[in-house]
Amino acid sequence: MLKRRISLAATTAAAALVVAGVAGCGSTAQPIQVNLAASEVLVQAAQKTEQVASYTVDAVVDVTHPQQGAGKVQGRMLYQSKPQLAVDLTLDTVNFGDRSLPGGARAVLQGDVVYVKVEALKQLVGATKPWIKVPLNEVGAPGEVQNMLTQVQQFDLAAVTKMATTSQDVKQVGTESVNGVDTTHYAGTFPVDTAVQQLPADKQEQARKGFAELKDVKFDIWVDGQGLPAKLHLNGAKEGGTLDATLFFKGFNEPVNIQAPPADQVGEMPEGKPAPTN
């Protein structure tokens, strides 16, 4: 769970990819003992994720929108909470319809500062260095920066696990190997309104906007022998839009190397330049 909450809202097309609408589907009836056991596993997993100080996540999100067409976000993130909050996010693919970020994007978050490397942003604001340094409390942060921070939230291990704990129909469906790790597979749906309330107050509004008018989201979660999620899958469709998102988590509490870019490659946001919002 991020120790400091990022309040910037999603305003770019890439953010829409991750939070595209989905509709859940019901599950077949199971003995109540099985449902209770599965629910307890998710609760324990959510509790354990809050104790995780570092991890790595790989994510792939494919979506379609009835008006805007198909889109894709693919990337990975390194996370650590100690000795200070630090995140290294790389997006190899970011596109939606006819909009894309050639060459992808990268962001490094350390404490209260985020360093962003996006060629399109560099050109828009007239930056002369590969990286742009932006304090998180700076008013009018560019839309591309907002988008990168949104992706950080979407890859948040504790947040996505907490939302799954609100499921009333989760069940165990088998055991599988995920990237060489033995896991137990659970599946169900969670009600969006209830799930969003499990998140910190400053993240709830963004989540509500992301899930739009959905009532339920279908999910699959693979829990390893430590009781931690090794994989999460969201899938569904609504009114012509579809979503297929998969996140792989690994390296729990293992050392990660997150460093700010070299000082000679970092520039400030040029003064007098309007901050683009999309």
Any overview of this molecule?
The chain has 278 residues and is of the alpha+beta class. The protein has a single domain, classed as outer membrane lipoprotein receptor (LolB), chain A. It has 7 helices and 13 strands. Strands 1, 2, 3, 4, 5, 6, 7, 8, 9, 10, 11, 12 and 13 form a 13-stranded mixed β-sheet that branches. Strand 2 (69-80) and strand 3 form a beta hairpin. Helix 2 runs antiparallel to helix 5. The longest helix has 18 residues, at 32-49. The two termini are 27 Å apart. Residues 1-36 and 272-278 have low confidence and may be disordered.
| Measured distance between first and last alpha carbons | 27 Å
What would you report as the Rg, rounded to the nearest angstrom? 19 Å
Q: From the helix content, strand content and strand pairing, which structural class follows?
A: alpha+beta
Number of strands: 13
CATH-defined architecture: Clam
Number of helices: 7
Q: What general outline do the C-alpha atoms trace? A: globular
Count of the domains: 1
CATH class: Mainly Beta
Q: How confident overall, as mean pLDDT?
A: 75
| CATH topology call | outer membrane lipoprotein receptor (LolB), chain A
Strand content: 35-45%
Helix content: 10-25%
Largest sheet: 13 strands, mixed
The H-and-E topology, N to C, reads as HHEEEEEEHEHHEEHHEEEE
Low-pLDDT runs: 1-36, 272-278
Structure, briefly:
The chain is of the alpha+beta class and 278 residues long. It has helices at 13-18, 32-49, 119-125, 143-154, 157-164, 192-196, 201-211, and strands at 54-65, 69-80, 86-96, 99-100, 105-110, 113-117, 131-135, 171-178, 181-191, 216-224, 229-238, 241-250, 266-268.
